[in-house]
């Protein structure tokens, strides 16, 4: 997906930035010590992976009251830093977003922060404390914050071992009429089904929550049943529900399906890494088919879906006009399943823009069907096919579909597909002839110098609009490397990502 790719790119770009400066955006550099552009930089501070000695920290703190949003991600912060940030919170009315993820603040650090948060001057709206080594001990104070701070709309507490008792304290805070929280992220928090009972009471009485991430907690079917009942009976208009890796089986699918068909507010639903299987997916699809369901994004990765499940999904893909994104990553769909999905893609009513089929046990045998689907489909923008053994033959077929005038594909991912130089002529034609194409991924392939030369030649063509040619773990000699480097200057918009 585009988002994931951007993240990857910025991570890889990190080591190139001098260690002496904050790693992230240029605006962060300017905000401490670069006078030019200071006006524009006042609002945001964005620093990642930078540790501060005492004097540098002092210097930074003296500038913090200018900012509306502060991100100090993975900066080695602890309790003493929290003292300064707490004073900031109690004095700076401008500060609305604070991101302290990936710092070992611990419970005592957060207790100190809460003092600032409880100050009437504090107007904070969004707080990130992901992976901060927190336990149930800090949840008492967070409960008080939830109860008294109605400005707070987003709270990210993922990757902290809050456990059943921590989760309970938070729910007590959420129950308070003052609490107006809209987004709550509790993935990897060691929550249990007891927490879901408390959360269900919240959902039965309050309507503010819009985004709820409960991924990677061992909830099980009984808890999910509770949750669904509360969503159905309560006033809540949830928009995004994340239940990845929550020990859910097909037994929960009837309840989830009822939520899908009765909650038009729900536009994003993720149930990845739960082995709901084909039987489960058939039930979910019934919910999606209901005209009341307005789902846009369905994340169904590693759900043990095979060909029969694809038959149901094809109907949804073909007819659900709100559905824009679907991920089937890590399901053994096989070529047989792909044949069904292609039927859905060919339906003139399909509105699907993004299809993830990474690691789906596909071979070259289904690529003619993909090609013929692409040649009649004008809405698909992103096709993620990496990790399937489709080989040169498969890619050549797919390229034929992409070259059809109807096809408006922008991103094509073909990494780890057993490719050699043989398919590069077809890829080169696509690069030249398809002005919509912006991203092409040929990572983990054996295209070698010969392949690289062909792709470079195509990129040089004035008709090529490609922005990213992605070539992780692909080998070539220094001669091919020169060709690739030469491209970077030639087209300002274009980048080779390695
Ligand atoms: C806060 O930090 C987390 C962890 O690095 C990151 O995923 C998130 O996007 C950040 N949010 C903002 C608004 O900076
Ligand atoms: C996390 O916090 C606990 C106390 O709650 C502490 O013992 C531990 O050293 C901290 N750090 C890590 C990496 O666990
Ligand atoms: C929910 O949590 C999972 C697990 O950490 C994460 O992968 C996903 O991006 C989160 N989703 C949202 C919308 O926050
Ligand atoms: C996956 O689904 C099949 C039926 O479609 C079932 O026989 C199998 O047990 C399931 N595997 C797991 C690990 O749940």
TrEMBL record:
<keyword id="KW-0539">Nucleus</keyword>
<dbReference type="InterPro" id="IPR050637">
    <property type="entry name" value="NLRP_innate_immun_reg"/>
</dbReference>
<dbReference type="InterPro" id="IPR001611">
    <property type="entry name" value="Leu-rich_rpt"/>
</dbReference>
<dbReference type="GO" id="GO:0005737">
    <property type="term" value="C:cytoplasm"/>
</dbReference>
<keyword id="KW-0433">Leucine-rich repeat</keyword>
<keyword id="KW-0732">Signal</keyword>
<dbReference type="InterPro" id="IPR041302">
    <property type="entry name" value="LRR_RI_cap"/>
</dbReference>
<keyword id="KW-0007">Acetylation</keyword>
<dbReference type="GO" id="GO:0005634">
    <property type="term" value="C:nucleus"/>
</dbReference>
<keyword id="KW-0597">Phosphoprotein</keyword>
<keyword id="KW-0963">Cytoplasm</keyword>
<dbReference type="Pfam" id="PF18779">
    <property type="entry name" value="LRR_RI_capping"/>
</dbReference>
<comment type="function">
    <text>Ribonuclease inhibitor which inhibits RNASE1, RNASE2 and angiogenin (ANG). May play a role in redox homeostasis. Required to inhibit the cytotoxic tRNA ribonuclease activity of ANG in the cytoplasm in absence of stress. Relocates to the nucleus in response to stress, relieving inhibition of ANG in the cytoplasm, and inhibiting the angiogenic activity of ANG in the nucleus.</text>
</comment>
<feature type="signal peptide">
    <location>
        <begin position="1"/>
        <end position="20"/>
    </location>
</feature>
<dbReference type="Pfam" id="PF13516">
    <property type="entry name" value="LRR_6"/>
</dbReference>
<dbReference type="InterPro" id="IPR032675">
    <property type="entry name" value="LRR_dom_sf"/>
</dbReference>
<comment type="subunit">
    <text>Forms high-affinity heterodimers with RNASE1, ANG and RNASE2.</text>
</comment>
<protein>
    <recommendedName>
        <fullName>Ribonuclease inhibitor</fullName>
    </recommendedName>
</protein>
<keyword id="KW-0677">Repeat</keyword>
